[in-house]
Write a structure and sequence with these properties.
The complex is a heterodimer of chains A (301) and B (317). In chain A, strand 5, helix 6 and strand 6 form a beta-alpha-beta unit. Chain A has a five-stranded parallel β-sheet, with helices on both faces. In chain A, strands 3-4-10 form a three-stranded antiparallel β-sheet. Chain A is globular and about 80 Å long. Chain A is 41% helix and 17% strand. Chain A contains ten helices and ten strands. With 301 residues, chain A is α/β, with parallel strands linked by helices. The longest helix of chain A is centred in the middle third of the chain and has 21 residues. Chain B is of the alpha/beta class. Chain B has one domain: TIM Barrel (Alpha-Beta Barrel). Chain B has an eight-stranded parallel β-sheet. Chain B is globular, with a radius of gyration of 19 Å. Chain B starts with 15 loop residues before the first helix and ends in a 12-residue tail after the last helix. Classes of the chains: A alpha/beta (301), B alpha/beta (317). Chains A and B meet through helix 1 of A and loops of B.
């Protein structure tokens, strides 16, 4: 937001908005809160989401499940790769936002943004490979084929990490959508701007509306209705502190949500993520099918 | 269900000329003001206990409707079961007002609903287009009444109405009314989406009421524009003014396109603010809807448990 375009010009300030159902609404409540950089200077006003915003986001995410989980894994990979392409094109903006939010120098912030882009590419590549790794043909004691096939869980609420505003965010959102789930993401409470900008990137990269929904605001306020919501199938508690995570897990038990607990200690987001986050929101379907030709002379049926 | 035309307006339909003069003498509608009024009333915030009351009232006002070519007796029976007990896990949930079906399904609905108090409503008169000879339409009505329908939803002849042949429309409504008199209440559908102007909707409303409708209803649900807050507000004003003029109370039924609890509550606000609390009863106000019920049930669950519900917790119709 520096005034580099000559003296006397008023810079155009950006209104950060939520990203829900492929659109950019303000909070239903009309509330905003001040977002400051690492040194406490005002940077922007972000929407302060209410539980109704959370509800609307879940409705949007539910609507998107059919199309996204039904898309071919190859197609999902292409779409996610496109996100990386768009991120690359707007890298400068993200470097600025990450540097502000996390108090990093420009080069360090640039490294974070590059790592985030690489992470999208990494997960984009996984979309059509995770089924081979986690599924397979099982040997059974009978004349049957027995296949395990991983399927997406459905709508997943994701509490993004509080510290790592972009790399951490990408590291928790990408695995959820790569496997065919749709996500309602609660951005980092004090550092929401990269997440809200990511919504703009997603909107321009062929990701169908509703597949990723981004909310900003008080994590505890938005997470509580999401954890209790009967139409949410899984919740990633990464961005919750220990006490909140405990409460949310209790609320989530009511409809048997899949819960991914926060890792103990500060996670290193630059490390190789492995497949754990992808498999956390997959369910394994087992298919039995008789072998051989039924009823053919000589068959054992 | 009085059998004669309300006295104060008895002479209006004496001839085509008097009817036309009366209907064209009605005050013109200010469309901007009407829509602004409807939108303004839609912004009321209805919360907590008032919301709970509104949800239960709305459920009790639903004409649970299935009007598809693919309707089967099984589907009608399951719809009837849902009308009787919308929420099996909570018996405090009220039943809906009626089940609305095609005439050939009226007997099935009747058998399923029995004497539960939930009414059988049947569309008739060559629904939804209304393009058939009068004797065919009357036979349609007769078969529905014979099959046990408590309420007949007829469509007016929009072609005749738009051509200015008001007396023909009037006499058709009278004939249908005679066919169901004493046994069934008559709802008259104007298909507001095809009437082009608010002035026409006002004229149709008065025409229907003078002809002896028990209910005036916005639309069939089969065209692009169905019930809107504005056209429903206009019809509510008509029934209010008609009662002031004649002492006869007429019901209103918006149908089609009302899918969410929020929408339904907006309509209830319109009813209360326009016609008045006398109409806040399923004898005088109905919603023609099918998917609305599930949304009301989900909101009801939310109020009861404090948790947002989802489509997995209501039936798939």
């Amino acid at each position: 937001m520096s005034d580099s375009s000559g003296q006397g010009r008023l810079t155009v300030l950006k209104t950060y908005k939520l990203y829900v159902a492929g659109k950019f609404p303000r909070s239903e409540s009309g509330r905003v809160y001040e977002v400051t950089d690492a040194k406490g200077r005002w940077r922007a006003n972000a929407p302060l989401s209410s539980r109704k915003d959370a509800r609307d986001a879940v409705v949007a995410a539910r609507k998107a499940v059919g199309g996204w989980s039904g898309a071919t894994a190859y197609n999902r990979g292409q779409v996610l790769y496109r996100v990386a392409e768009m991120l690359e094109g707007r890298a400068d903006q993200f470097v600025r936002e990450v540097a502000d939010a996390e108090g990093l120098s420009k080069p360090k912030a640039a490294a974070v943004v590059e790592a985030a882009i690489d992470r999208w590419v990494w997960y984009a590549g996984w979309t059509d490979k995770i089924a081979q790794v986690t599924g397979g043909a099982n040997p059974v004691a009978g004349p049957y084929f027995n296949h395990s096939a991983p399927e997406p869980t459905g709508v997943v609420a994701v509490l993004a990490p509080q510290d790592s505003s972009l790399l951490g965010l990408v590291s928790v959102v990408a695995p959820v959508v790569a496997t065919g789930n749709t996500a309602v993401v609660v951005a980092s409470e004090d550092r929401p701007l990269p997440a809200l900008s990511l919504g703009e990137v997603l909107a321009t990269s062929d990701v169908p509306g509703g597949v990723v929904n981004v909310l900003s605001g008080r994590t505890a306020e938005i997470a509580a209705p999401l954890a209790a919501h009967q139409d949410v199938n899984g919740i990633d508690l990464t961005g919750a502190d220990a006490a909140l995570a405990r409460d949310l897990e209790i609320a989530a038990a009511d409809n048997l949500k899949r819960v991914l607990r926060p890792a103990a200690g500060a996670p290193d987001w630059t490390a190789d993520p492995g497949t754990r986050r992808m498999t956390s929101f997959l369910e394994t379907k087992t298919v039995w099918h008789p072998t051989g030709a039924l009823g053919v002379a000589g068959s054992s049926y | 269900m009085s059998t004669s035309t309300p006295p104060p307006l008895a002479d209006v339909a004496a001839s085509d000329g008097t009817l036309r003069r009366f209907l064209h003498g009605l005050p013109g509608v200010d469309p901007v003001g009407l829509e602004a009024r409807a939108a303004a009333l839609g912004t009321r915030s209805i919360k907590t206990t008032a919301k709970a009351y509104a949800i239960d009232l709305a459920i009790s006002m639903i004409d649970l409707t299935t009007l598809e070519g693919a309707d089967t007796p099984g589907k009608v029976r399951s719809l009837a079961a849902k009308a009787l007990r919308p929420e099996p896990s909570d018996r405090a949930t009220p039943a809906t007002a009626a089940v609305c079906v095609y005439p050939d399904m009226a007997a099935t609905a009747r058998a399923a609903l029995g004497d539960s108090g939930v009414k059988v409503a049947s569309v008739a008169t060559a629904f939804p287009a209304g393009r058939a000879a009068l004797d065919v339409k009357l036979a349609d009505v007769r078969s529905a009444v014979a099959a046990g329908a408590d309420e007949i939803d007829m469509v007016i002849d929009r072609g005749a109405f738009l051509a200015g042949d008001y007396l023909k429309v009037y006499e058709e409504i009278r004939a249908v009314r005679a066919e169901c008199d004493g046994q069934a209440r008559l709802k008259v559908i104007f298909e507001t989406g095809e009437l082009s102007t608010y002035d026409n909707i006002r004229r149709a409303s008065w025409l229907g009421m003078i002809a002896g409708a028990d209910f005036i209803k916005t639309s069939t649900g089969k065209v692009g524009t169905n019930a809107t807050p504005a056209n429903t507000l206009l019809m509510l004003e008509a029934v209010r003014d008609f009662r002031a003029a004649t002492g006869v109370q007429i019901g209103v039924k918006p149908a089609g396109g009302i899918r969410t609890t929020k929408d339904a509550i907006k309509y209830l606000v319109l009813v209360n603010e326009t016609a008045g609390p006398d109409w806040l009863d399923n004898h005088w106000f109905r919603f023609g809807a099918s998917s609305l019920l599930n949304d009301l049930l989900m909101q009801r669950q939310k109020l009861r448990t404090g948790r947002y519900s989802g489509p997995d917790y209501v039936t798939v119709d």
